[in-house]
Design goal:
By secondary structure, this protein is an alpha/beta fold. The chain has helices at 63-70, 93-103, 119-127, 137-147, 162-174, 192-209, 232-235, 239-248, and strands at residues 18-25, 40-47, 52-56, 78-83, 86-87, 104-108, 180-184, 212-217, 228-231.
């Protein structure tokens, strides 16, 4: 941890939307996991502003865990995660929550909308954890919903179609115009037609806002939508791989 979380390029160039260096994490006491092995060992990952990246991998490869580490929902044992030039893990408590709410948008596979609350209230809830002045919350929430075609702003998730729920979830993720959007299996619970519409929506909104998009998925159909595709296994040294490298003495940097 550093006392000054904001890191600037001495050349004055704008920092990447996301820059990860030497990030390591392990689940303590994980069953059948060697005590000296890392669940995730990510040497580096950079994503530029406006860039869209697909991370692929099967179930259990650490895709969701990686997004939680990037978002500052879980702390790594080692390494740094810079979001728009700020080390999110050097922040704690309310400052981290405000930074995440302002700079990072998150889209979940099950939408995670608040049951019983209106579409407008769901988007307003995201603004509560941002640095946006409260007086602007309603205006921004209504504008985000209008941009995504949601006119029934007082309808609850139970009163909306699956496609409309997805739009509300995207509106909530981008209402603060974040630098980085993280999408965790955003089409996993959708049929093929709705999945296609959902990804059209997510990618077009990120392009419009100039936000970087990091999407994780095990769906092969997603690959054609992204110019940059990374296999998680090629980026991350898993617990099994770490143990093997340690046993063979080949655990140097790569």
């Amino acid at each position: 941890m550093t006392d000054t979380p904001k890191l600037r390029d001495e050349s004055g160039a704008k920092p990447p939307a996301l820059s990860v260096r030497g990030m390591r994490f392990r689940y303590v006491g994980a069953v059948d996991t060697p005590t000296d092995a890392w669940t995730i060992d990510l040497p580096s990952l950079d994503v530029a502003h406006g860039e869209q990246v697909l991370l692929t991998g099967g179930s259990g490869t650490g895709k969701s865990t990686l997004l939680h580490l990037i978002a500052g929902l879980v702390d790594p044992a080692e390494g740094t995660v810079l979001v728009d030039g700020t080390n999110i893990h050097a922040l704690a408590g309310a400052p981290r929550d405000r930074f995440r709410g302002t700079k990072i948008g998150m889209i979940f596979q099950t939408f995670n909308l608040l049951s019983g609350f209106s579409a407008l209230e769901n988007v307003l809830a995201a603004l509560m954890f941002s640095s946006v002045p409260p007086g602007k919350h309603r205006e921004l929430a209504e504008a985000a919903l209008a941009r995504l075609g949601i006119t029934r702003v007082h309808a609850t998730p139970e009163e909306l179609s699956v496609g409309q729920q997805q739009r509300v979830a995207v509106a909530r993720a981008v209402v603060c115009r974040p630098a980085l959007v993280l999408a965790d299996e955003p089409t996993a619970s959708l049929d093929p037609e709705n999945a296609e519409h959902a990804m059209d929506l997510i990618q077009s909104v990120c392009r419009e806002l100039g936000a970087a998009l990091v999407c994780v998925s095990h769906d092969p159909a997603m690959s054609a939508r992204f110019e940059r595709r990374e296999k998680l296994g090629a980026l991350v040294r898993s617990a099994i791989n770490s143990a093997t490298l340690a046993a063979t003495g080949a655990g140097g940097a790569r």
